[in-house]
Structures are given as C-alpha cells and as structure tokens.
Amino acid sequence: MTDKWYLGIDIGGTSIKVGLCDVDGALAHTYEGPTETDRGRECVLDNIAAYARRCVEEAGMDWGQIRGVGVGIPGQIDAVRGVVEFAANLPLSGVRLKDHLEKVLGKPVRIGNDANVAALGEALSGAGRGAANSVTYTLGTGVGGGIVVNGRVVDGFSGMGGELGHMTIVPDSEAVRCGCGRIGCLETVASATGIVRMAREALEQGVRTTLSEAGALTAKAVFDAAKAGDDTARRIVDRAAHYLGLSMAQVAVIVNPERFIVGGGVAAAGEFLLERVRKSFRAHALDRAREGVVIVAAELGNCAGMIGAAGLVRDL
Question: Of 180, 243, 287, 297, which residue is least crowded by CB atoms under 10 Å?
C-alpha cells in the first residue's frame, strides 16, 4: 500500500466533496457535506476543514499520512498567491484560502479554479490518462474549460487560462450578449443555457417543432427531439456542435493537445453530439493540428474535481 496520500476538496455552492487519493489519482474514500453558505464565511471555512479531517478519519487513516491538500473552487482564483479573488455563489471572495487552510490543517495547500481542477482530474485518471496534453470542455449552465500541458494545469498570468467558454467565436451577425458582458462567446451557443435560448427563440418565431409540446424546455429536451428527427432541434444541436468544433480547431493551433475531452450535463448526449463536434473540428483544423487528435467524453463525472484537486499537490 502506498504511503503517499493526498486530499482533494471540491467546493460547490451546495456541497463540499472531499476525496482521499493515492499518487495515481485513485480514490480510496470520499466524504460529502453541506456547504452552508447561508451561515456565512466562517462556517464555510470551518466546514472545509472539518470535512477534510472526517474523510481521513472515516478512511481509517492517520492525519500524518496526508502529504498535501488541493482545493477546487468555482470563481476567479489567484492560484499563485492562493487567494479567492471572486466567487459568485460562495462567501469566500477575498479570502487567502491557501494560508488559512495551511494554518488550520497543517499541510501544504494549493487551490485552483474548479473547471481547471476537473480538467486535471480527467488528465490524471480519466479520459485524458496517458496523454501529456489535453483540453477539457465542461458543458453545463455555462461552458467551463481547462488546459493541461505536460501534466500541469495552465492557470495563466491572472488565472484566466482555460476560460474556453469566453472565446469570441460566434460572428457578429449571429452573436448575442454573454453573461460576462461580451458579445459572441462560445458559452452563448454551446452551454445548456445557450441551447435552451436558441430553442425558445425558435418557438417565439413560430417555427413548427415538437419542442412546443415539451413539458419543460431543457437542453435534454432539445437533444431528445433532435434524436427523434425534429429538424429545428437538430439545427440547434448542429449549431452548438459547429462552434464547439470550431473553437477546438483554434485551440489546436495554440496548445496542440492530443485529446479534447467533453464533459458536463450537455455531454450526456454522448456520441450524438460528439460525432458532430468531430466533423466540425476536422473541417476547420489545420492538417497537422488535427492529426492524431481524438475528441472523447469525460469519464470521471462528479469525481473529477476531487481527483484533480488532489493532483494539484501530488508533486509537492
């Protein structure tokens, strides 16, 4: 049995997940508890530390066996200084989280953006294992992303590395304003929110579609209708896939990854979506930039954040 163990903490607005991992990114034990954001900053910080210790205790291990603690957080993160610059759904904006947790846990700590951390998780022991360079897209309410080069996450100068959802990709004639305030971001067409927006616009224009009969207009409803042969739904899916593939073609000449990984709720559409993304990528990427490149579904699901967070500290 290994004597090197690492804790990965995935902080969300609703729950905090803690995973105990070995050096290869294999999960030995997990613990999950409520974030309790409504009780304020101190409560959330106390919960992070308490759940970390509880995970180790439940695993039957001694705290002294833990080599380091990694943390993934949704928001703008200064990974170098270990500061949460801004977290919309957590009372942690401005917190020097690295320093705080090193003080209360007595272990080396590294923090990172949750999408970057999930990408590292997939690179270590998910769909990207065996590839030195991979790029992960997380398609949910928005479009998150993470870039891993030579086994390390690319945070960038100000922590904005891997913000794939905010690539300006949609031409002006088709573009709408993104939640970030800019026009034409990938997120406006490839996220669940973007897919539902396009479906709602079609209905408002009086287009004939079975989506008018859907009880709830969701991204899943759009994919289900597309799979059933609905022309309007299929055009929406094709549009989302077109811009995803186009964005990958652009990333390919900058990063030149071996593997693109697609995860998140929207990716549950599986090959129906991925085959269209691959077609767009092949149509737009330079020959040498697409040669040998594969586009695959993420494998780790909700565990990616814990595994990737642990991966932040395994080389300490």
Answer: 287
